[in-house]
Design a protein that fits this description.
With about 180 residues, the protein is α/β, with parallel strands linked by helices. It has helices spanning about 15-20, 30-45, 50-55, 60-75, 100-105, 115-125, 135-160, 170-180; strands at about 1-5, 30, 80-85, 85-90, 95, 110-115, 160-165.
């Protein structure tokens, strides 16, 4: 099994990127927020939204994410892509996800999806299904830069590769395809 994390700030289009990629390569897509919701529901038998998770105890949620991730990958083979975050906008500021969370997942590689802050801002405004903190374009740009730095540091700490990609980066697709054929 080859385990990759595709990370980026909220609204960058990770799920869209992965849907397009799924047309070219076979992989299991695990969305961190969905894994968290499932795990919390198993524990509490309650229904949570993405905003409940964002506003909750971020570090406690990361422990739950590890449990859910382990449960989902234990019977998998091939390429697994975790769609998640290395920083979370709690509304009061950014909370970094510790490297230890990703270390427990035994990741082989990080990909950071970046986009023009104006595009991310527009996507966030157009998405009426989520209640994200209201951020300016400059704040979105700052959050993305910080997330890139945090992701790079986590990758260094874990001694795994980290590649920055955009929606138009063919190299990311080639790398994912290459890695899928490794296992």
């Amino acid at each position: 099994m080859y385990r990759i994390a595709l990370v980026g700030i909220s609204g960058v289009g990770k799920s869209t990127f992965l849907r397009r990629l799924a047309r070219e390569v076979s992989f299991t897509h695990l969305e961190a927020s969905r894994l968290l919701k499932e795990e919390v529901q198993l524990l509490n038998a309650t229904r949570l939204t993405s905003e409940d998770l964002r506003l909750g105890a971020v570090l406690d949620n990361q422990n739950l994410l590890n449990c859910a991730f382990d449960r989902h990958v234990e019977k998998l083979d091939g390429l697994v892509v975790l769609d998640g975050h290395t920083v979370i906008d709690t509304g009061a500021g950014l909370q970094e996800v510790p490297a230890s969370v990703f270390d427990k997942m035994c990741l082989d590689e990080f990909f950071f999806l970046q986009d023009d802050p104006c595009e991310i801002f527009s996507r966030r405004k157009a998405d009426t299904t989520r209640d994200r903190p209201d951020r300016s374009i400059d704040e979105v740009a700052e959050h993305q830069e910080r997330a890139i730095l945090v992701t790079a540091q986590i990758a260094r700490d874990l001694r795994i590769p980290c590649t920055i990609v955009s929606h138009n980066t063919k190299g990311a697709q080639l790398s994912l395809c290459k890695n899928a054929s490794l296992k």
